[in-house]
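Methods: example folding runs. The two proteins below were folded one after another, and each record is reproduced exactly as written to the output file, sequence line first and structure-token line second.
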Amino acid sequence: MNTRNAIQSSDQDTVLSIGWSHSRRRFAVGLSEGCRVFRADNCLTTHHPRLATDEKAIADGGVGVASVFDDRYLAFAKGGRTPQGSPHIFVFWDATLGKQISVFDLHEPIVSIKLGSAFAAIVLKERTILLQYQQLIPLDGTISERQPTGGNEISKTIVVVPAQSTGQIQIIPFPSGSKRVFRAHNTALRALALSDDSSLIATASIQGTLVRVFDTMTLDQIAEFRRGVDSSIVYSLAISRGNRWVACTSDKGTLHVFDLRPSSQAPVEPQRPLPHRKSVSQGQAPSNASVARSSPPGSVQYQGSIQEYYGLLPAPSIATPASHTAATSALNAFKHSAFAPRALKDIRSVASGPFYIGNESQHWQGGAAYSWTTGPDGTRRRVRNPVPPLANDPSGRPPKGVLAFAAEEMDDNDGALMYVIGGGNDARWERFRLVRGNAGSNGWMLVNEGFRRYLTRQFAD
């Protein structure tokens, strides 16, 4: 009699992939058995289709990649430990009819799927294919860099994918136009994000220390932010609807929010010219500008120049009294000196906070971590089993920190609302809000408003 405990219960689903809709009102997850679609604002299930085409099939099989357009259409490719289908086949599903309406065998493993308003982008390991919804025929094939993570973005007018050269990005306009290529990083790309109006691109490399933002029209770099000093795996990037906030998640378990319009760019009041130094007549008190101030011992008193005497130039900073503490002034002076390291000069996030990444085991997809075999000498040996790879992650790590800003209309000056989705065995949906506060030096703070385990029972009996 077999009395051993199961390594993983058969009714426990694991999340293999997470994909946001173009409107960010829905997200789809590929499971070890089938796929599901959820609302973004409250994480309630909107669609849980039965994917098995054979009525005698007991299970739907694993879904390695899933993407959703709205409440009716979704696309997926099989995957996982028990796919019951080929990971090369792209399936377009109609939720209203409850069946697949188009199937394409691409003869290569599908890494990622993005559904836009008029086109679908299917990312393979070495190329990206665009499909048009009305006819669902291959529209174009673009050779790109080998993409183990499936980084790409799609909008109404352009598709952004990594180029053939390391660290480069290519922007492909459609339905017509010539593509443009530019270098974003010196190392391979890890994550991409495209703004809603297709004007900005946020990028991060496999180094994971810097986040850069580029203009899609001029290809100029308009901002660079430092996530941290240590290398990390950037999970996701996102840009707010008003193009002010850029958010980033990484394997450090921290959500960072950067400001593309910092307060330092606000209009500065013009400096008033210094008053003219009038001569002192008899019987009159000297003016404040002509009063001599005593200097501490060992210091040199600033005498001023002829231009400053007549009010043509403002006094230099050394002549004005310090408004901060000595330690703060020394730190600021060191930051602007030529000897300061770059990490100290870079712009940091205006707010940050932890998100849940869990403590997933190495074999979170199920199966034994070790197996026994017989060596050449006849002795039994324990061998570590390999971790099954995912469609967009050859290392087999569970998807975590998949980020998106809320679709609701919101003034960026009032803050932002963000959702962070995690997969694996302990799949969670979290909601964060950026509000004004005194927690940070920039006047913004990040508040975790709650979470939900979206694979568990959502309503009580």
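Second run, written to the same file directly after the first:
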Amino acid sequence: MATVQSVTDLVAGRLAVGGWNALLARLKTDRHDQSRGGSVEERKEAYALFRRSAIEFRTSLAVLIAAPPRLVGALWSVPLHLRMLHRMPDDSSRLLDDFLAVHTVGRLPAIEAAEELLTRISAAVHDYSGHEDDRHAKRNGKTGVDLSPIDEALADFTLAVRRDLGFGDARTQSGHDAEGARDPD
């Protein structure tokens, strides 16, 4: 039976900072301009799948990080946690596949936002893996891993997607301008 450490090692291996940076550098050299990309429907589907994969992976990572250290071994008896932790390697593969789809059919602002989101997810996994052997941090329940950068990057990706698909900024859609004043129309 797998342990939390083996799941962490596998996920960290899939999203290893060195490997991810090499992939990102290669993709950046092959980056295409604004005029290319897939149809609106292809982009919409790719963006939605990547966003869903990022949210699912972030949720699983939060469960892993938030587990009280004294209960980490007992997580395997909790069905929800068991399913989430066992799903993490597949979730990381799906996340990378969905990112490649965004890179293939997306437009530059959305691609850059997706790159930033994946970079922050990778950094969080790397930070967690680095604290895995820190008994003092585990005893205090503090791994030093902050998931808020992932949340910020996810919000930025969502805004980039909305702009690319013609939805504009959420603030302008509700009848407010950038300063928050009511639009006269």
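Comment on the second run: Helices lie at 4-14, 17-29, 40-66, 79-105, 108-131, 135-140, 148-164, 170-173.
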